[in-house]
Specification:
Number of domains of chain B: 2
Number of strands of chain B: 9
Order of helices and strands of chain A: HHHHHHHHH
Mean pLDDT of chain A: 92
Helix content of chain B: 25-40%
Structural class of chain A: mainly alpha
Shape of chain A: elongated
Oligomer: heterodimer
Largest sheet of chain B: 5 strands, parallel
Number of strands of chain A: 0
Largest interface: A-B, 27 and 30 residues
Number of domains of chain A: 1
Number of helices of chain A: 9
Strand content of chain A: under 5%
Strand order of the largest sheet of chain B: 6-7-8-3-9
Radius of gyration of chain B: 17 Å
Helix content of chain A: over 70%
């Protein structure tokens, strides 16, 4: 069973590496959106510092939404998705492997470039660990929850808009608590509460989202 | 076929034909469809559809375009739920023993499930890892299916017929008991078709079962081919 998980994970990572330009899309989007704000708002340190957590998190959220549709689309079109569901392994496990692969190629790069963007927005250095922690907890939740929406809309020809409508409301709690945590860190207030809540959301999504995604895929393929 | 069951609306497959060969476990598992009903966009494609497949038998499903062949196959491999009726493996509703049933099944649909950006070898390696236990090395499987020398070619650069062969090679590297193949001869040249017929013949000889859709005559040697004709006008099979 672990073997099957690893096989799907390795396959998706290989495929992602062979599509490097598409891989870079969400990351480029993230960087461009964040760098546009100082140009529009002016370089005043106080303003940027105040809005930095929100900007970074909204940009991360939109970048994640952009990349979401690709998670199952290709597999759906070439028939390999049905092959995954027709193995004797639990579909939720294989789906989790695909979600992990998706996060590794879309979520992880966002976390890696975020310190640079935080610097650009004058986010105090002491808030950086909190920003990284909130992204590390929040982006997997977005991949997991997004997977449910993608699984439900993959059979539709124009599912993009519907996907956004389905998934964005579910991202709102993540956005509120994550941006709130970074805000608190900037003001040197305690952040444990928000981070624990994000961690709880991650555990909840990790347990339930693969099952819901597998069930949604069966509906979409049926 | 045994005759201890009530007659089913089955094709002309009542000729006695026991399991041949001892490749698979000798428990004489049958694959049955009972009373299947399929509705697509308010149109009843078939109703009261049933058949029974015993080891060593092959069913060829024919029918006009849009008569529900693919819908039937997708129901048989549990991808789609039928409106009513059930699919049975060894007399048990296959949905209840889903993992065990899927372990015995290979389905190749008309989208062959071959990733264009992976090489032929990588495609089969993934299939092998997911199937859990192969009996033939992927490269040997590719050689047998006539793709020697194409192991490291991305599937994107293969022709339609060669892509189809990559998908069919899965049958060789991990021979399951039940094969459900949707138009397996599409895009294959005559030699490719003969080769697949040979593979199907071997499969039946060792007690495997197969259901295929195709409009072409199928010749698998000594093994009888049962025909089911799906009609758009009539309900159920012909």
């Amino acid at each position: 069973m672990r073997h099957a998980f690893a096989a799907v994970l390795r396959r998706d990572l290989t495929l992602a590496l062979r599509h490097r330009s598409e891989l870079a899309n969400p990351l480029v989007f993230f960087i461009v959106v964040v760098t546009l704000f100082p140009l529009a708002l002016g370089p005043e340190k106080d303003i940027l510092m105040r809005v930095a957590p929100g900007i970074i998190w909204v940009a991360a959220l939109l970048a994640a939404t952009l990349s979401m549709d690709r998670m199952f689309r290709m597999d759906f079109e070439d028939g390999s998705l049905e092959q995954l569901l027709l193995t004797h392994h639990p579909p939720s496990l294989l789906v989790l492997a695909k979600i992990v692969a998706h996060w590794l190629v879309t979520g992880l790069p966002l976390i890696l470039v975020s310190p640079l963007l935080a610097l650009l927005l004058h986010l105090p250095l002491k808030a950086l660990p909190t920003l990284l922690a909130s992204l590390a907890l929040g982006t997997p939740v977005m991949s997991l929850v997004g997977a449910i929406g993608v699984a439900l809309t993959v059979g539709l020809r124009r599912g993009g808009m519907l996907l956004t409508l389905l998934v964005l409301p579910l991202y709102v709690p993540v956005l509120i608590f994550a941006a709130g945590a970074v805000d608190n860190a900037t003001a040197e207030l305690p952040v444990a509460g928000q981070l624990y809540f994000l961690a709880a959301l991650l555990v909840l999504a990790l347990t339930l989202a693969p099952i819901a995604t597998a069930a949604s895929l069966r509906i979409s393929l049926g | 076929m045994t005759s201890d069951r009530p007659p089913q609306p089955s094709p002309e497959s009542s000729a006695g034909h026991g399991p041949a060969g001892a490749f698979f476990r000798p428990d004489d598992v049958t694959f049955e469809a009972a009373d299947l009903r399929c509705v697509r966009q308010d149109r009843t494609l078939f109703d009261g559809f049933g058949f029974r497949l015993s080891p060593g038998e092959l069913i060829q499903i024919e029918g006009a375009n849009g008569s529900g062949k693919t819908s039937l196959l997708r129901i048989l491999c549990l991808l789609t739920l039928p409106e009513s009726g059930e699919v049975r493996w060894g007399g048990v509703n296959a949905e209840e023993i889903r993992p065990d049933f899927l372990r015995e099944l290979t389905y190749i649909g008309h989208t062959p499930g071959v990733k264009a950006d992976l090489t032929a070898h990588e495609n089969l390696a993934v299939a092998a890892a997911l199937s859990g236990g192969i009996t033939l090395d992927p490269d040997e499987g590719l050689a047998r299916i006539g793709l020697a020398g194409f192991e490291d070619t991305p599937a994107r650069e293969l022709s339609a017929g060669q892509t189809r062969r990559v998908a069919l090679a899965r049958l060789l590297i991990h021979p399951t008991r039940l094969w459900i193949l949707d138009e397996p001869f599409t895009a294959l040249d005559p030699r490719g078709k003969a080769m697949v017929e040979g593979i199907l013949g071997e499969h039946c000889a060792r007690g495997g079962m197969a259901i295929i859709t195709t409009h072409q005559p199928v010749d698998i040697g000594d093994h009888p081919v049962h025909h089911i004709r799906m009609g758009t006008a009539a309900e159920g099979e012909g």
